[in-house]
Design brief:
- The chain has 188 residues and is α/β, with parallel strands linked by helices.
- The chain has seven helices and five strands, in the order βαβαβααβαβαα.
- It has a single domain, classed as 3-Layer(aba) Sandwich (Rossmann fold).
- Strands 3-2-1-4-5 form a five-stranded parallel β-sheet, with helices on both faces.
- The radius of gyration is 16 Å and the shape is globular.
- The termini are far apart.
């Protein structure tokens, strides 16, 4: 049954609950937001489950539907093959963005949702231009439009910190992939 909500539906790919906070807040007035959790880059099962549990919890707090994609670690490893030594922000990240946004685009198409964006652009190390370029490639051939929103703008990252603290959300300090976890450990 079609929604009576006059706002257009938008699929928001969620990298983690803390990043979703400020993004949902910014989008809710203009869009009927549906969340998609799809993060095969989070290869450690416990870390993946912890982040997913927080995404579920926050979706419940704000009353937004959350679609859970598959864990898909092997698919991520295939996409990142030969790129694991690249620094964060390099070709590995580009491949990871393309994979996640392709699956998000397919999920949107399946549900008749024509608009897509991602929380990835809230991250200080994830420039809108890189994410938008990956989205353009990833969504080729799909009837889904990528909305290039830089959620870092207008204090988005700081707002996500406030909302995360307010709701007691687990806030990780690495993207989730094995190379970023190892880099975090080297920095400590």
């Amino acid at each position: 049954m079609p929604s009576a909500d006059p706002r257009p539906r938008l699929l928001l790919h969620v990298c983690c609950a803390p990043c979703s906070t400020a993004c949902i807040e910014r989008l809710r007035d203009d869009y009927d937001v549906v969340l998609l959790w799809y993060n095969p880059n989070v290869t450690d099962r416990d870390e993946h489950e912890r982040r997913l549990a927080e995404a579920r919890r926050y979706a419940g707090i704000v009353g937004v539907e959350l679609i859970e994609g598959p864990r898909d670690v092997e698919r991520w490893r295939e996409a990142a093959e030969g790129l694991l030594e690249d620094p964060e922000g390099g070709r590995r990240c580009d491949a990871c963005f393309r994979l996640r946004l392709r699956v998000a685009g397919e999920a949107a198409e399946e549900r008749g949702i024509r608009l897509l964006t991602t929380t990835l652009t809230l991250g200080p190390r994830k420039p809108l231009a890189k994410v938008a370029a990956a989205a353009e490639e990833a969504l080729a051939g799909l009837p889904v439009e990528y909305l290039p929103i830089d959620f870092k703008k207008r204090g988005g990252f700081d707002r996500s910190l406030q909302l995360s603290k307010q709701h007691g959300l687990y806030r990780q300090d690495f993207c989730g992939c094995e190379p970023s976890r190892l880099e975090r450990e080297r920095r400590r």
